[in-house]
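lol forgot to send this yesterday, sorry. struct tokens for the thing we talked abt
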């Protein structure tokens, strides 16, 4: 059993807020690759942005996700490590943008814990911003792709409740063994 846990799902569904709460509770967390890439691209005037070059953005997200995993293996200790999205999300985006078959191989070579937590579409908290320029309909379509692919890759998906961040963190911890393997 793997101690790397994915928090995925709908954009604007509260993943980053949940990761911040899990971090506050003492767990290792890894920020979403996409947000970091957007910040870097904006800083350097690059074009690997999802609204300009989705394929380039997705390739960078895969590279960054692989680096994140290597770093987590070296630095995270023995506890749970929670990923805001991660390699499978990035590989799915790459495949969706280019039709290049990368997802199955990457998912097999770099497994995560078999339980994946998904943030459902939640219009009450969704907000576009300068780094999330797509609308709610696109966020729902992304959620649908993720909700479909994870079980096909052998993962058990659990929908996070539409509740407070504390209740969501409690939900996550209640569905994982008390100590990682």
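and heres what i got for the seq, position by position
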């Amino acid at each position: 059993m793997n101690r790397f846990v994915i928090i995925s799902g709908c954009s604007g569904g509260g993943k980053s807020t949940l990761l911040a709460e899990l971090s506050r509770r003492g767990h290792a967390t890894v920020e979403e690759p996409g947000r970091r890439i957007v910040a870097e691209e904006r800083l350097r005037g690059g074009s690997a942005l999802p609204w300009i070059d989705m394929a380039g953005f997705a390739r960078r997200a895969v590279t960054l996700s692989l680096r994140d995993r290597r770093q987590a293996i070296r630095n995270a200790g023995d506890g749970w490590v929670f990923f805001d999205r991660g390699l499978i999300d990035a590989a799915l985006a790459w495949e969706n943008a280019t039709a290049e078959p990368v997802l199955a191989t990457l998912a097999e070579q770099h497994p995560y814990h078999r339980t994946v937590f998904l943030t459902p579409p939640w219009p009450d908290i969704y907000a576009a911003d300068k780094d999330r320029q797509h609308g709610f309909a696109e966020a729902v379509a992304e959620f649908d792709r993720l909700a479909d692919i994870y079980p096909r890759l052998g993962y058990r998906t659990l929908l996070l409740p539409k509740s407070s961040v504390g209740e969501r963190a409690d939900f996550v911890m209640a569905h994982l063994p008390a100590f990682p393997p």
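The chain has a mean pLDDT of 88. anyway ping me if u want another try
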